[in-house]
Amino acid sequence: MYNFLNDPQFVQHRLDGDCHLFRDIQHPLPTWSDVIENLNVSIDNNWLVKHLNNHGFVTHNAELIPSVGDLLKYISTLDPNVPSSAHCYFSLTKFANTFGRHNDTSDVFFWQFIGKTEWTVESKNGTIIHILEPNDLLFVPRGMWHNTKPLTARAGISFGLDY
Prior knowledge:
Layout: H1 8-16, E1 20-22, H2 32-44, E2 49-52, E3 56-59, H3 68-76, E4 84-91, E5 107-114, E6 117-123, E7 126-132, E8 137-140, E9 146-150, E10 154-161
Antiparallel strand pairs: 1-8, 2-3, 3-4, 4-10, 5-8, 5-10, 6-7, 6-9
């Protein structure tokens, strides 16, 4: 079904503790309807939903979105002894706030599936700017500083290997 995690460049980047961009992973894309339904389910069940200024949101149960659960299972095979998670980040405007410059305690795979997002990653090879478009997947190892900026209304999933 999938094979992109076996890409030799990715394997080397992961061993080196560096980021890696996969272009067009060929996975079925969720829709805005899927995102809104995930938001509704989260609110209906009183699950955590973060609201960021200027119409940005984060839900913490994105594995319920069709096609996301399968991708989470595949990414989890990298380290099956570590808990994994899937969060949906979406912005209704390009002006939505994000978490700003930060790093994570998880290895993060961010899958863009609607719109465009600019990622500034402080890589081992210097600062790199990636423009993510639908079906792009960016790997950012834990501890690596990064920042995101919506360039359009957008939606994506952050998969975490939660060490």
